[in-house]
Amino acid sequence: MIEYAIYKGEKFIAEGTADELAKLLNVKPTTIKWWSRPVNSRRDKGNRKIAVKL
Predict the structure, then answer these.
(1) pTM to 2 decimals?
(2) What are phi and psi of 42, to 5 degrees?
(3) Of 8, 12, 13, 40, nearest to 24 (Cα)?
(4) Which whole number is the average pLDDT over 13-32?
(5) Are 18 and 34 contacting, i.e. CB atoms less than 8 angstroms apart?
């Protein structure tokens, strides 16, 4: 399984699989996967949640 680390700006939020993080953050696992896409990083102005694949 792929593990992700979630950040909001420079602040670390959580780490885990897409399913674990989805339950923790009350979103769908597909949302976690979207946060890891390059397009989401390009749109970030410093306050967007970003998922980094580990």
Answers:
(1) 0.88
(2) -65, -30
(3) 13
(4) 98
(5) no
Query: How many other CB atoms are there within 10 angstroms of residue 31's CB atom?
Result: 15
Q: How many angstroms from the chain centroid is the CA of residue 16?
A: 10
Which amino acid, one-letter code, is at 19? Answer: D
23 sits in which H/E element: helix 18-25
- CA torsion sign for 43, 41, 38, 40 is negative
The single-letter code of the amino acid at 31 is: T
Amino acid code (one letter) for 34: W
Query: How many other C-beta atoms are found inside a 10 Å radius of the C-beta of residue 27?
Result: 15
What is the three-class DSSP state of 41? helix
